[in-house]
Amino acid sequence: MAARTALRTLGALGLLQVALPANAGLTGAALLRGAVRRRSGPASATPSPTVGARRTVLVSGGKMTKALQLCRSFHAAGHRVVLVESGKYRLTGHRFSRSVSSFHVVPRPADAGYAQALLDIVVSEGVDVYVPVCSPASSYYDAVARELLAGHCEVVHADAATIAALDDKEQFAQLAVSLGLTVPQSHRITDAAQVTGFDFSSSGRDFILKSIPYDPVHRLDLTLLPRENAVATQTFAESKPMSVDNPWVMQEYVTGQEYCTHGTARNGRVQVYCCCESSAFQVNYESVDIPEIEAWVTTFVGALGLTGQFSFDFVRTSDGQVYAIECNPRTHSAITLFDGHPGLAPGYLEDDRPLIRPLPSTRPTYWLYHELWRMLAHPVTAAARWRVVLAGRDAIFDWDDPLPFFVVHHVQIPWLLLGNLRRGKSWLRIDFNIGKLVEPAGD
Question: Of 37, 101, 319, 427, which has the most beta carbons under 10 Å away?
């Protein structure tokens, strides 16, 4: 197994090395283009804020594309941006973006010193607003940090109790039901015996098991319950690491088209919103308009008076009924659809702004190296993948800000691969969007 993992890692490094000359040429051309434009044009100046005074905005989650998008949007609106990330990802390519004024390494969110490190940066950098770009594991810790940062800066994030409730799939479902909103039937599971003892016959529905804490290994398992017989159902349930401290939810399996949404809210008003069809690994986004889903989101956010970033997963059945599967109280990668939108920064930083959606001219977003991998792994899909590339926009590459694209693919990811090779550690896949290796029991 160790030898196979090492060969796989070396293979990934080799493929990235093959792409290096082309990426270096593209980055060099973009840098030269920028130098020529600056020399031939008027001296560049800091853009004026689109609304209000110029602010210093602290953004976390520096390894992720969604953090880069927010940095670029805040910078384009005339604000100063400070970016932070934990030590494991200190070589993130996004720290080299021209939109980032300052970069800091902070402890992991679960570490005791995380909130204090954020406060030290807020004070030293004169931060006015903190916008957390959370991983699934950090949403709660940023909510805890919110309490410490209060009085020093504004935090665009909900309180700890709200985050904990929304992150818990079963509590979220109960909350939605109390507001008269549609969700699948859900049951909290802490022991396999609860599954084997469930009366599936009277329910007449299929169910799936989902871990309530984020689980990168089991999250894509959509095995339907009950299985072909009681023994198979018991064997499957017992294969899951469930306990009182690691609860799961058994959720009714609703069939239909799946959608994902991003929403940014202030005081119960959704001010930034987009909806997309879901994809297998969420690395392709194209804006769609589903009024029933938008109404569900605005009703939920308004009823709770939420402030922060809230992403929802939905299923729309053949008869048009929409069911919210879960809420992830953090930034969605679909925020990349707002590239170049002048209303994004005000939507995050100002109260009582009109709701914005992606511009009609917005092209779908993709990650080029994911598309190239799909072409290599499944050559029969190459033509379709090229159509995606030609019709869309790479979420990281920007002609005016090319260094992140080069460093993410040829420094950040290779550095992580080399680290795993040195430690003999396995990984499931490379996620260029999130800027990490997806690992068993990872972050």
Answer: 427
Whether pLDDT at 1 is above 70: no
| 280 contact partners, CB below 8 Å, separation of at least 6 | none
CA–CA distance, 131 with 79 (Å, rounded to integer): 13
Q: Three-class SS of residue 376?
A: helix
Check: CB of residue 78 under 8 Å from CB of residue 49: yes
List alpha helices for 41-97, DSSP H.
65-76
Question: Dmax over Cα atoms in the chain, in whole Å?
Answer: 75
For CA atoms 316, 319, 323, 325, the dihedral sign is: negative
What single-letter DSSP state applies at residue 435?
T
What type of residue is 396?
I
- Identify the pLDDT of residue 347: 97
Find, among 284, 363, 272, 355, the residue nearest to 74 by Cα.
272
CATH of 257-362, one of 3.40.50.720, 3.30.2000.30, 3.30.470.20, 3.40.630.30: 3.30.470.20
Q: What is the per-residue pLDDT for 41?
A: 67
Q: What is the pLDDT of residues 288-324, one digit of tens each?
A: 999 999 999 999 999 999 999 999 999 999 999 999 9
Q: How far apart are CA 315 and CA 257, in angstroms?
A: 6
